[in-house]
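Before the break, one more example. Copy the sequence into your notebook; we will annotate it together after we see the structure.
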Amino acid sequence: MKFKTDIKPMNLTYAAAFLDAEGCIVMGKTMKWNPRQQKHYLCTTIRMEVCNTDFDIINDIHKFMGIGHIIDIKPRITEKGTETKPQKRWQTTHRQTHEVLKQLLPHMREKNKRKKAKEVMKFYEKRDRK
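Here is what the structure looks like once it is written out:
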């Protein structure tokens, strides 16, 4: 029996499913320091990332979406003393995350990630109306 080895082209549904399964969306508040004004201020941080040991998939999603950047994650030593596999992480921040989620949200299925994606969308919709 022969298996078909050609790879299907990337699409939004696949990218959204990969985010559902292997990704995370983070939105929170953090204090930042402004050295020019010599004071702290509250900043909203928004980040989305997908991490995997299959470098080709991460690179393909990054290339398909055309936004964000790739981070190499070095192997770590576990509590049992074994070494984990190296990973690649595709990461977007702030407006980049908003742009990606506008495209992926209609295709996402995981309830908690959909909820977080909608929070990011509302944040920027409200901000852009001002």
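The longest strand covers residues 39-52. The chain has a mean pLDDT of 91. Try to locate both features in your own notes.
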